[in-house]
Each structure stands twice: as structure tokens, then as C-alpha cells.
Amino acid sequence: MEHGIYLVTLVGAALVVAAAFSSLIAFRFGAPLLLLFLCIGLATGTDGLGIHFDNARVAYFAGSLALAVILFDSGFGTPLNALRQAAGPALSLATFGVLLTTGLFGAAAYYLLDLTWLESFLLGAAVASTDAAAVFFLLRAGEINLRERVRSTLEVESGTNDPIAIFLTITLVEVIAANTHPEAKVLVTDLAVGFLVNMGLGAVIGILGGMAIVRLVDRLNLDHGLLPIFVLTLSLMVFAAAGAVGGSGFLAVYLAGLIAGNSDIRAVTILKRFQDGMSWLAQIIMFLILGLFATPSQFPAILVPAVLLGLFLVFVARPIAVWLCLVPFRLPRPEVAFVSWVGLRGAVSILLAITPLLGGLENGRLIFNTAFIIVLVSLIIQGWTVGPLARRLGLIVPARLGPLDKVELELPGSAHHELLAYRVAPGSPVARGERIPRWARPSLVLRDGRSMRFQDMGRLAAGDHVYIFVPDRYPRLLDKLFASRAVVDPEDADFFGAFAVDPSRPAEELETAYAPGLTEAERKLSIGDLVTTRLGGHAEYADRVLLGPIELIVRDVDDKGRITGLGLSFEPTAPVARVPVFLSAGEIRDRIAAFIRNRRKPAEAQAVEAAEMEPVPQPVVEKTTGEG
Q1: Percentage of the chain lying above the pLDDT 70 cut
Q2: What is the mean pLDDT of residues 350-372?
């Protein structure tokens, strides 16, 4: 008995260590980290080293708790400005996108597998949600600085589509397990009512739970070592409470993290570090358990249809669903194409594929094995191509700041203030002699192991450690002073144009100097407002607007989205891949109007030609005779 405990602990710890070491491989070669975790689980399972694990309930329970931890951390790290920026597209993808993917994929599964319609839609619901953790790991590993709008859309979608896919999957399992065959109308009505109740209760409990977490953390004077554990436990209580009353626990825990992370919660730096580590551990445990639960020797029997379904999901179902959901939004076609491609399936899909086994469905193992193969297909095809595709579509932008060595410290009684420790980077503004603002005078400077007052040491030098106590609304301004210049790729050397343009100047000056063909209304705008209008009312860092012979590039925007810096370039934009599909609503409208005009032109031309060929009638002249 005692030796068994040691053996289980040794094997479990060894698997976690192996998964942690595999992250070094992923960072080095840009491999999908989730794929490595799953492969480690498969290699140590029944068909590998022989570790037998087939307890579906334990796998689902452990996976659900791990997913709750991941979702809380995801919400905690999502800023409200990202939510506001991408709320419309992301929520459309998380709701209608999941439903469309389920329907399209379910129809294909019905004809490729020996499943009923409901079982086919069940498999579609299981693979309908995306796994953004793998996507953003690839972006970080490849040092990809993606456009904020695209990144925010993917982040918010990933945090909100899991609860909806989970609700659909569990509901369909219950319907199939009850061995009933409701009419389509009744089924849709029950699903709609159940969905509203499930999501409504989850949203209410999540918001109230997030507010309660913030209040308790501020009121209770807990030790800093105990505080992160206390918050994590409270988040799991929110998750369990929502599920116990019939709500979505996953939506509740995500919203609780969102509320807590965007409030003035105490010890936020400590909480972020702890939750980041717990999120990594939760991902490793969930992926390893799901890999152990799978039995690769059963895969060959369904390999061909499962791979075909995986390809259908990647190349047909996901792109169509994304396009239909994003048609109402004025997103450029390259961004829509990238969002449609970055729909990696991961641990959530495998976790949901366990529910048919829990429900005792006849084809439960077939559904699980198919979903597992589909996840592998998605990771292999999409996981290796995220970075290259982002570059090909022109969605990579230069970093705003270069390397920054910064530590945030929290002190007792320092509400709404932060103690920041910076290391002066070579080439940073302060190293070049830029003055530090009066409201951020350093309290202490360390140089060559010696501490001294800022007033006594003169000019800061590269390598100095500077400690500054400032209000919490100013750190972003200081980051710009202490960061070195962004390292720009040779391909992006002229990314922002050779000339700077004042956004407040009138657009009439552009018309006078370059004759780009502005309308009368556009000439009355400022250059910044002109660019914002051409971009559909929202400007983002690194956006570009072509105006006749010149191109204006957004160099910077403030927190309210107003353009504060513009560049001007006479060079054409670097060529990017043309995307012939994913037309927006405006482009569809324009093409329909052009088609109608072209249809009218031949008829009008024929009418004109017929009129020219028809003889002109001569006036009738009556001969008159006079009398006398």
C-alpha cells in the first residue's frame, strides 16, 4: 500500500516534469504545446508504457476543475478595453459560431460515420469550441506581435465559447440517453429555454461572485502567501455554486475572473503570478489525463472518416461559420481569414467527448475516439502554421516597446500606488538623458551594488536599478521611458513611413500637397479624423490607409482610441496574400450594386443604339393654296 502511494506520486510527478520540459521544445521549434502534452499522455498510456487509466468520471472531474482554473485566469487577465474592442465579433463567434459549426459539422458526421442525427450533432457540439491557450502560446513562442483587434477577438471568443459548447453537449447527451425522439421544433424550443436559463444564472452568479471576491480580499487582512489560495478557492466556489443551481459554472468562473481582474483588487501582482503558474499546472494535468484516457489502438478503425471530418472542420465548417458571424462587422478580409484559421481544437473538445461515455451512450467510445483524432488533425495542420499565416496576411506589427526589465512591488497601505523597480535598458530614453517626470521621482537607485539617492548620483546609466513609487495610473508612461527601442525586423524598417504627420492638421493640406482625391466633406476633417473615418470609425496601432499616391500609417493611439501619431509613406504596402473570400457586408452590398449597374448598362446602351438607328420622323408639310 505504502509503496503504491510512492509509485503513483513518482509517476505523476515525472509526467508533469516531462510536460514542463517539453515546453522548451515548443518554444525552440514553435510546436503546439498541447500536442506535446497529449503525446506524452498517449506514450505513457495503455498502448505505451502500459499505465492503465479508463475512469471516465475521474477524467471528466479533473478536467472540469482544471478548465475552471484556466477560465478564471483567462478572465482575470482580460482587460476591459480588449472586451469592449472585440465584444461584438467575439460574442457572435461564441454563440452563433458554435451553433453553425455544430450544424455544419454534424451534417458531415452523419454521412461519414454510423451515427444518428442527434449523435452527429453531439459530436459537432463537442468539437465546436476553440482552444486559445495553444494559439497564444504559439504567438508568444514565435515572438509574434499580432494586431490588437485580432488578438482581442480570439481571446474573448476562447473565454466565452466553452460554456455554450458544454451546454449543447450535455443537453444532447441527456436527450439521447433518455432514448426519446422529440420533434425538431420541441427540441429547439427546449434548447433555447435551457440555454437562456443556464447562461443567465451563470452570468448573474459570476458577476456577483467576482464582486464578492474583490470585497473579501479588500476586507480581510490575509497573509500574502495565503491570499492567492483564498482567491482560487473562492473562484472554484463560484464555479460550483453556479453549476449546483442549474447555471453555467464555466461562464460564471470566467466572469468572476473578469470582474476581479479589472477591479482595484489588493495584491494584484501576487495574484497574477500565482494564477499564471496554476493555469500552467491545470493545463498540464488536464492534457496528460486526457492523453492517458485515450486508447490509440482503437483509432485505425475510424481513422479515415475521422481525418476527413477533421479536414472538413478546418477547411469548411469553421471558415463558413466565422464568415457568417463576422459579415455584419467591418473587419478586413485578412483578419477574418486569420480568425477562421486559428480555430484550434484542444482539451475542451476531448473533455466534452467524454460526456457520451458518462451518459452510457452506445456509440460513446466512437464519439470520443473521433473527437480525439479531430483534435490531433487540428493541432498538426493549424498549430504549425499560425505564425507563418499571420505574417503572410500582414497581421504582424512592430512592437511598441523594446525589452523592458520591470518588477512591480506591493507595500502595506499603498492602495492605488505601486512601487516599481526598473533596470535601465541600453538605448532607452532615460539612458539617453530623458528627464523623469516630477511626479515619478525615484526613491532609490542601485549602481554597482551601491545604493544612493537619485539626487546624489546624476544622470542614470544603463544597468542602474531604479525604484519609483507612483500612482497606479502612470506605469504605462514610465514603461516608455525605461524601455529600449523596439527591435524592428529589416522587413519592417519602413513600416511607419519616412515622415511624421500631425493628426490635428486639416486634411485640406493633404489634398493641396498630394491630390489624393478627397471629397468635400473629408477635406473639412482633421487628418486624424479622416483616417479614423476611412477605417470605419475605429483606429488601431499600425493600421494603414491608402490615399492616392500616399499611405498614412497609425503610429500610436491613446487609451480612448484617438490617433496621436501618424506616418506618411510614398512606398507601396508590402505585398500580402490576397484573400478572395470572406467578403464583408459592405463589400457584398457594393458588388451587388455594381452587378445591377452592369446589368442596366447593356439595356441602356441597346436603347441608345436603337434610338440612333431609328429614322428621325420628318414634320408633315401641308401644301396650301391661296385664293385670288
Answers
A1: 81
A2: 93
Report which DSSP code applies to 469.
E
Could you give all domains of the chain from N- to C-terminal order, each with its CATH number?
A: 2-49+56-392 (1.20.1530.20), 405-482 (3.30.70.1450), 495-569 (3.30.465.10)
CA 21 to mean position of chain CA atoms:
26
Contact 112, 321 (CB under 8 A): no
Q: How far apart are CA 437 and CA 253, in angstroms?
A: 40
Mean pLDDT over 133-160 rounds to 74
Query: Among 227, 203, 200, 201, which Cα is nearest to 216's?
Result: 227
Nearest by Cα to 88 from 538, 624, 502: 538
Using a pLDDT cut of 90, give the percent of the chain over it. Answer: 30
pLDDT tens-digit readout, 256-275: 999 999 987 877 878 888 98
Rounded Cα gap, residues 125 and 118, in angstroms: 10
Q: How far apart are CA 131 and CA 346, in angstroms?
A: 5
CA distance 402 to 415: 29
Quickly list DSSP for 123-161.
Answer: HHHHT-S--HHHHHHHHHHTT--B-HHHHHHHHHHHHHH
SS3 354: coil
C-alpha cell at 215: 470585497
- Which cell goes with 338? 486569420
Give the count of alpha carbons within 13 A of 507, CB side only.
21
Task: Transcribe 505-532 into DSSP letters.
Answer: SBTHHHHHHH-----HHHHTSBHHHHHH
Please report, for residues 117, 150, 346, the alpha-carbon distance to residue 371 in angstroms, rounded to integers and kept in the order given. Answer: 16, 27, 10
pLDDT tens digits for range 573-612: 554 566 767 776 666 777 787 778 777 766 555 555 555 5
CA–CA dist 279, 284 (Å, integer): 9
CA dist., res. 535 & res. 335, Å (int) = 14
Answer whether 230's CB lies under 8 Å from 222's CB. yes
Closest to 236 (Cα-Cα) out of 211, 213, 267: 213
> What is each CA distance from 443 to 138, 143, 273, 288, in whole angstroms?
39, 34, 25, 48
Burial profile 576-586: b = 16 or more Cβ within 10 angstroms, e = fewer: eeeeeebbbee
Distance (Å, rounded) from C-alpha 437 to C-alpha 415?
21
Residue with cell 452510457: 360
Q: Is residue 450 classed as helix, strand or coil in its secondary structure?
A: strand
pLDDT, tens digit (0-9, with 9 covering 90-100), for 183-220: 666 667 777 888 899 999 999 999 999 999 999 998 88
Using a 10 angstrom Cβ sphere, with 0-12 exposed, 13-18 middle and 19 or more buried, the burial of residue 33 is: buried
On the question of pLDDT at 623 being above 60, the answer is no
